[in-house]
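This part of the workshop introduces the protein records we will be handling. An example says more than a description, so a record of this kind follows:
>
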Amino acid sequence: MHPFRIVTYNIAHGRGLSPYQGLNSHASIQRNVLKIAHLLERLKPDVVALQEIDEDSHWNGRLNLLEYLREHSQLPYSVMGVNSQRSGHKPLNYGNAVLSRHRVGTWENISFGHSEIGGKGFLFAEIDVGRGHVVPIVNLHLAFASRRARLQQVEAVSDFLSSKYRHRQADWLVPPILCGDLNNSSRRPDATAALFEYFQRHGEYTLHPANARTFPSPLPSRALDFVFCRRPAACPRARCCAPCFPITGPWWWISGCPGRDSTEGDACRQWARDETGDGRAIRSPQGEGWRRRRDSNPRSACANV
């Protein structure tokens, strides 16, 4: 089987390095999203997990960013999970999404409550990679300001996955791969640590990146974005090769994976410089005031599974 590449990417509504997407012109947002599409073309992912992506919002002229990315990145399959929804003369509709080179089978979006702005949630999708093989993906975006809210959200994710394990595990090529913007460090007793403890009960998982920093993007000082993957020895149908961190994430392969050119990480970093203009990790949480300023720089992580 060919290498299976995953990118997780908080695109921050396509605002680039602006502190707030409402300060961007519609044309600048479109240009930024086109740069993201060009980056995805170069990375050639099988699956892209997107956070803070707009389906129908006033601040970009009601451009459907998922459809725009799908069209310009040559990834034919997509599903959208709206977690923030507001009607009226300034509508907002945005959340998480999945772009895929492969058909998306069963999928569900779970919102953590109803929100007009700043809503969080997770999108679960089973990716049909052919020959009856299914790769389960969880695209998660957790609350920024509240540890208590994050822990409650992780409990909801855990309950959901426990049910999926019982009913769908026999169809999975690998156990669930979870990625996204978790808005907390793995080094504190918070949501990331709680998720890792949960996954450890279902096998020997690894948490990536182990040491890399992802936030804030101009001068990263800590990691807030992660990918959870089962250890290769614990999964006879998959193996993890030596990870590299081309932007902020690891690379994995399912089944027979060729050796990796040691220069690929540098190449990916160069792609980021070429396509985003600064080569910085691409992410952002949602928030107001100070949090909004921290929210200004998008971030991505890549993984080969």
Notes: The mean pLDDT is 79. Residues 147-168 form the longest helix (22 residues). The helical segments are 26-43, 65-73, 147-168, 191-200, 264-276, 289-294.
